């Protein structure tokens, strides 16, 4: 079976202008969404706060829960309903005293619904100190990973390829974060894990094409860089599509079956993988060309 | 010899068997005695339990220590007849106002000789008044803070040991944090209470000579302090916060206690805690009660007066009781913290993550289903697309998973929910190496090479791409590992091990099969 015919010859490099334009639009939409929402929807991991996930034996509407929380003045908490019986209560406060908000919330609910009629499935409390810590760590991790990738590619290939790789990377991250913002998804630790994985995956993809370009250049063909790139991308298209397909498939499974925590993670990964393939094919290599025009490298061919 | 098919196949088989060896204990218990017992360690988000990050108030620990120092200094100064107007601890300093005419040097000498841990940070003499400020030497302060954290870890460990949680983990982190993990704990609120209670037990005398009302208005006599406790309110006879006028000096503390036990009173079937003093404590207690018959002795726990019974007579035998409407659980927990000892400083909870067992079980089920279905889809796809070569890739994939799980069991790595996602992701990404190789082989065959040559070229040329792409993913996983906590670390671990194992299975192991068929069996056409 073959999805991609061996004789395929799409002019990827030629569509550089269109591709850059589409990417630009997507990035603008992403940033606009973030601005429009007033920043990112930070989960308690970064903003601090308390989360209590409660499963009731009977279906319970959020309004009823809200009034149950009134005595402890938490009726303005964010209450998300997973299904008619299960909710997640989120409040921005977190007390460091031992009793904690989670116990107070439990008590308040017990008073209204009776002790055995619900089950606390999960509690997460993040104090402001820890929240700030994690925010800093997250941003550093992502930025340093970009730098590390740049260095590695510059070392294994050439600096200009590093530029192309990083451009594709930053593009992917911005678009993924934009998608998360558009759908108002919470940014949690697991989402950051997804972003870092996308970094790894996007570069992974890009390198396979760079490797082929490097190989074709070594053959000493009397073609310019743009043509070699096109040939290389077309030659590896089969593999690019295939691997993306397998990764995409398992991610869809995770998205559907993985449960609440994994669901958002899979969403971020799906956007990232699609963006990753697109950026690998349409952004990374053309970016190298653009960089080349902007700053020609001393060695035209290695 | 290392290149022969026999050797390579044997090596692959050995790796597989070793992995299985480590993996089996997680699947079944019926294994002969010599087998290892380590199962794959499940994270808290899969087995349920609670993860706490505590912060020790090391500043308060330092202040408490300084307070005790201040009392010792007072005694020493009086001994040596160095007269002073006032001596008190303010925050992290001790401030001494010496009397007129007393040379600062006499104070300095005493400090140097008897209190080497302290240094004089300032000494001012203004208009006949001399004020000397002392504080801990910088180095010593750091040491004391560290000691406070270590002591806290020990105390908390003692308490949890008595609480009965299997495999708890209590680890210091950084300068003043402690990480506590309690897998499978059922009553989280109770556990948190047990851990965080400072449990400072003090015995002080109630000052019945001075007026309580005057003190409440603000005129607190010297050496006294107003403290509150629970008792029936005089007017309403309901339980309320009742003030007491207490003499500040602690006559006994929890350190004099040998042990504490829960007992049930004959009268009302109430639970109470019976204290037994150690030998020095018993002697002290006898003396104190003998000296203060008919006075009230306040039993104070964490700054709250628990009870203040009248001392009827001298008590020998070193036993005392703490009573007061406890439930059985409350009494048990109080006995536990008294036995384990007081925390050197207050502890606050910076972060808590608790997962109930039902959610944990749910997550495991969902994780397993995702892995199976995801795996099946990939397997079917590989066979459909690459035919028999796809089968070889699938076998490599299976070996990959076995190695991954075996390594995790062998190194007692923790499997978390994101970790399971990492396994599923590995399945998707591991086939990439095979795809690279097979696509290359197809290309070489199209270019007209023989089966044997195509295989060689395919593996050789694909290798650099596989290496570079996997290394970059590994770099990302490394950052994840560094940055992540608990569950996210678990993801980085499975991703890393999975990728490394996939390089082994995709490159080394599948090659064995291909070589076997092409070299030994002399197959001419490849099913790829």
Strand sequence of the main sheet of chain B, in spatial order? 11-10-16-15-9-12
Main β-sheet, spatial strand arrangement of chain A: 2-3-1-4
Number of helices of chain A: 9
Low-confidence stretches of chain A: none
Head-to-tail CA distance between termini of chain B: 29 Å
Number of domains of chain A: 2
Seen as an oligomer or otherwise, the chain set is: heterodimer
User: Radius of gyration of chain B over alpha carbons?
Assistant: 35 Å
Number of strands of chain A: 4
Q: Which structural class do the helices and strands of chain A define?
A: alpha+beta
Overall structural domain count of chain B: 3
Mean pLDDT of chain A: 84
Based on CA atoms alone, the radius of gyration of chain A comes out at: 24 Å
Number of helices of chain B: 13
What CATH first level of the largest domain in chain B would be assigned? Mainly Alpha
- Report the major sheet of chain A: 4 strands, antiparallel
| Shape, principal axes of CA atoms of chain A | elongated
Low-confidence stretches of chain B at least 5 residues in length (pLDDT < 50)? none
Count of DSSP E strands of chain B? 19
- What structural class do you assign from the helix and strand content of chain B? alpha+beta
């Amino acid at each position: 079976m073959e999805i991609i015919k061996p004789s395929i010859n799409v002019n990827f490099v030629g569509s550089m202008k269109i591709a850059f334009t589409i990417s630009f639009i997507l990035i603008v939409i992403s940033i606009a969404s973030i601005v429009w929402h007033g920043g990112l929807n930070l989960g308690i991991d970064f903003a601090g706060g308390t989360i209590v996930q409660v499963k009731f034996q009977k279906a319970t509407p959020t309004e009823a829960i809200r009034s149950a929380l009134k005595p402890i003045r938490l009726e303005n908490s964010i209450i998300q309903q997973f299904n008619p019986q299960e909710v997640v209560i989120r409040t921005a406060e977190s007390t460091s005293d031992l009793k904690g908000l989670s116990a107070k919330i439990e008590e308040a609910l017990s008073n209204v619904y009776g002790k055995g009629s619900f089950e606390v499935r999960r509690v997460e409390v993040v104090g402001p100190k820890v929240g700030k810590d994690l925010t800093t760590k997250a941003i550093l991790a992502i930025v340093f990973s970009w730098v590390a990738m740049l260095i590695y590619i510059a070392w294994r290939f050439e600096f200009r390829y590093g530029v192309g790789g990083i451009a594709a990377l930053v593009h992917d991250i911005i678009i993924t974060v934009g998608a998360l913002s558009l759908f108002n998804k919470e940014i949690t630790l697991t989402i950051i894990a997804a972003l870092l994985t996308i970094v790894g995956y996007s570069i992974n993809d890009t390198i396979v094409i760079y490797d082929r370009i490097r190989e074709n250049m070594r053959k000493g063909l009397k073609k310019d860089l743009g043509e070699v790139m096109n040939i290389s991308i077309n030659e590896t298209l089969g593999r690019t599509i295939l691997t993306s397909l397998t990764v995409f498939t398992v991610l869809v499974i995770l998205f559907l079956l993985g449960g609440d925590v994994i669901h958002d993670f899979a969403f971020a990964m799906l956007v990232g993988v699609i963006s990753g393939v697109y950026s690998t094919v349409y952004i990374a290599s053309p970016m190298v060309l653009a960089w080349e025009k902007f700053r020609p490298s001393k060695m035209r061919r290695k | 010899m290392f290149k022969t098919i026999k050797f390579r196949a044997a090596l692959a088989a050995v790796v597989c068997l070793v992995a299985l060896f480590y993996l089996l204990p997680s699947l079944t218990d019926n294994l002969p005695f010599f087998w290892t017992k380590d199962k794959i360690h499940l994270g808290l988000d899969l087995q349920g339990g609670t993860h706490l990050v505590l912060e020790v108030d090391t500043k308060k620990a330092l202040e408490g220590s300084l307070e005790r120092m201040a009392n010792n200094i007072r005694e020493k100064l009086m001994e040596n007849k160095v007269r002073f107007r006032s001596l008190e601890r303010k925050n992290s300093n001790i401030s001494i106002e010496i009397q007129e005419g007393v040379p600062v040097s006499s104070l300095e000498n005493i400090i140097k000789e008897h209190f080497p841990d302290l240094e004089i940070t300032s000494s001012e003499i203004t208009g006949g008044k001399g004020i000397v400020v002392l504080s801990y030497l910088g180095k010593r302060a750091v040491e004391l803070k560290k000691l406070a954290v270590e002591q806290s870890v020990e105390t908390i460990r003692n308490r949890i040991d008595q609480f009965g949680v299997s495999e708890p983990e209590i680890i210091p982190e950084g300068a003043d944090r402690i990480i506590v993990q309690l897998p499978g704990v059922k009553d989280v609120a109770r556990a948190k209470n047990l851990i965080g209670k400072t449990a400072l037990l003090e015995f002080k005398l109630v000052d019945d000579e001075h007026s309580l009302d005057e003190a409440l208005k603000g005129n607190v006599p010297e050496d006294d302090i107003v403290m509150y406790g629970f008792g029936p309110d005089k007017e309403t006879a309901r339980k309320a916060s009742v003030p007491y006028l207490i003499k500040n000096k602690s006559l006994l503390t929890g350190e004099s206690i040998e042990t504490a036990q829960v007992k049930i009173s004959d009268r009302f079937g109430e639970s109470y805690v019976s204290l037994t003093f150690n030998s020095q404590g018993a002697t002290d207690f006898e003396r104190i009660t003998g000296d203060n018959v008919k006075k009230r002795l306040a039993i104070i726990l964490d700054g709250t007066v628990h009870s203040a019974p009248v001392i009827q007579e001298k008590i020998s035998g070193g036993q005392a009781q703490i009573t007061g409407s406890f439930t059985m659980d409350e009494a048990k927990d109080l006995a536990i913290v008294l036995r384990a000892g007081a925390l050197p400083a207050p502890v606050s909870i910076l972060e808590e993550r608790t997962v109930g067992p039902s959610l944990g079980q749910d997550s495991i089920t969902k994780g397993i289903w995702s892995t199976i279905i995801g795996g099946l889809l990939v397997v079917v796809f590989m066979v459909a697309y690459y035919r028999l070569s796809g089968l070889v890739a699938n076998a490599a994939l299976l070996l990959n998973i076995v190695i991954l799980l075996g390594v995790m069991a062998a190194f007692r790595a923790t499997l978390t929910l994101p970790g399971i996602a990492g396994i599923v992701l590995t399945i998707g990404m591991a086939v990439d190496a095979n795809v690279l190789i097979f696509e290359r082989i197809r290309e070489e065959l199209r270019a007209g090479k023989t089966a044997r040559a195509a295989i060689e070229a395919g593996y050789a040329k694909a290798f650099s791409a596989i290496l570079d792409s996997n290394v970059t993913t590994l770099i990302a996983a490394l950052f994840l590992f560094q940055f992540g906590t608990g569950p996210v670390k678990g993801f980085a671990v499975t991703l890393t091990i999975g990728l490394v194992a996939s390089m082994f299975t995709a490159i080394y192991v599948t090659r064995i099969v291909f070589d076997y068929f092409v070299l030994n069996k002399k197959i001419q056409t490849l099913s790829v």
